[in-house]
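FORM 7B: Structural annotation worksheet

SECTION A. Query
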Amino acid sequence: MIIGKTELEIEPHHISIGPDHFAVGINDGVWYYRWRPIGAIDVTKQSMVQIVTKRDYMGTVKKVVMND
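SECTION B. Predicted structure
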């Protein structure tokens, strides 16, 4: 089942999915995105996937844990 699609800036090493956000990362960088399920898009026609922030960490990130 496909719940959404988006173009990413990188080919990620790891992906983490939470109820409203997902994160993709490679080496010491992690990109955080907000996503909305199909049908939840509002009448302003905003994009279903929006980047929230990109963070660089001091060491290699092996995984990101997402929760509510």
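SECTION C. Observations
The mean pLDDT is 84. Strands lie at 14-17, 21-26, 29-35, 49-56.

SECTION D. Sign-off
Analyst initials: ____
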